[in-house]
Structure formats: structure tokens, C-alpha cells
Amino acid sequence: MTKPLPMPNKQSISIPLSKSKLTKGLIGALLFVLSSCWLLVYQPTVNNPVFDNPLLKYGAAVAGILFFGYGIIYFSRKLADKKPGLIIDDEGLFDNSSAAAVGRIPWMNITRVVTTQVMNQQFLVIVVNNPEHYINEQHNAIKKKGMIYNFKHFGSPIAISAGGLKCNLSELLEMLDAGLVAHRMAVV
After folding, report:
1. What angle is formed at CA 28 by the lines to CA 24 and CA 33, rounded to 5 degrees?
2. Are residues 45 and 125 in the same domain?
3. Same domain, 69 and 98
4. What residues form the membrane-spanning segments (predicted)?
5. Within this chain, do residues 98 and 182 fall inside the same structural domain, yes or no?
6. Mind listing the pLDDT tens digit for each residue in 131-171?
7. Disulfide-capable partner of 71 in 4, 29, 66, 112 (CB 3.0 to 4.6 Å)?
């Protein structure tokens, strides 16, 4: 893993996508799609009136195929993606780390970076001074809904997970904090 570098001299830190983490995600999505197909075709019975409902089984199977089918597409595309997952430079950061990546985020728009956790998944929330700009720039309706949810619950539409990156969350937080401090010192 690349260690944090001073930011003001046009240096950048490029954090690649983790092909091993993405491969695990692809395998998991494939297994869930196969399980959902099995549920749809065989409609197994259990001794429970709720779970033996054919409509419930059908709905769960179709939802699993659609959701994890999208996961297969996403992980396949990310595995083929040659661009870094995240670039941190003197201008800010460029996010290409997830399906909801926002692209370039200038340092002047970032007020702070905080960690948060949902269930067992930790991620960084990039708190910006113009959240509406990032929400309005998103043209994909599903991604926009996700950004609105993030904004309402975490104070920012931008959240970055280290799950698909070749670094851990604490390293990423350290690099972003160092870049934000360097930017603020350069502005003063």
C-alpha cells in the first residue's frame, strides 16, 4: 500500500481496485443467483406456513435474481476496469470505487471526513459543503435515491467503502485527512 504523500507538489496517490475482493463479490453474487434460480424452479417445502407460501418463494427468488444479477454485472465491470478505484491529489479526490462513485470531489468542497458503520460494513462519509450539487449531478434514479438516503442519514450524499480497494479503511481515512489538512494549509 502506498503511504500518504505531501499533497501540495502535484503528487498523487493512486489506490487500485482490489481484484481479489471484487472476485469474492462476483462469486458471492453468482452463488446467490444460482440459489435464487434453484428456489424459483424447485420451490422447496418447509414445515412453516409463512415460508411455504409459493408467492413469497417466487417473490424472494425473483428479487434475488434481479439484485444479485445486478451484482454480477457490477463486479464483472469493475474487474475489467483498469482505472484506479481512488486517486488523491492536490486538487481533491477522484472516486471510482463503487457503483455510486461520484467522480471528482475538490478539496474546497470537503468539510470533513468521518467514519460510520451500517450493520458490519464500515465506510467513510465525505461531508461536503454543497451536497445538493452532487445529488443533482446524478442522473441515475437509483443512485440518486441512494445519495439522498446517505444525505438524510449520514449528513452527506458521498460515502466510500474500502471494500473494493487495495487498502483498509483506516489507511484511507489517514490519507484523506492528510490531504484535507495539506489543502487547508496551502489555502491559508
Report:
1. 150
2. no
3. no
4. 21-43, 55-75
5. yes
6. 999 999 999 998 999 999 999 999 999 999 888 899 989 99
7. 29
Residue 75 and residue 88 share a domain: no
Write down the number of H helices and E strands in the chain: 5, 7
What is the 8-class DSSP label of residue 155?
Answer: S
Type of residue at 63: A
Three-state SS at 118: strand
Tell me how far the alpha carbon of residue 37 is from its chain's centroid. 27
Q: What domain count does the chain have?
A: 2
Contact 169, 176 (CB under 8 A): no
Confirm if 163 and 172 have CB atoms less than 8 A apart.
no
Task: Quote the cell numbers at residue 108.
Answer: 474546497
The DSSP letter of residue 164 is: T
Residues 6 or more apart whose Cβ sits within 8 Å of residue 79: 19, 22, 23, 26
Please list, in sequence order, all residues whose beta carbon lies within 8 angstroms of the beta carbon of residue 159, skipping any fewer than 6 positions away: 100, 116, 123, 124, 125, 126, 150
Other beta carbons less than 10 A from residue 61's beta carbon: 20
pLDDT in tens, 85-129: 999 999 999 999 988 889 999 999 999 999 998 888 889 999 999
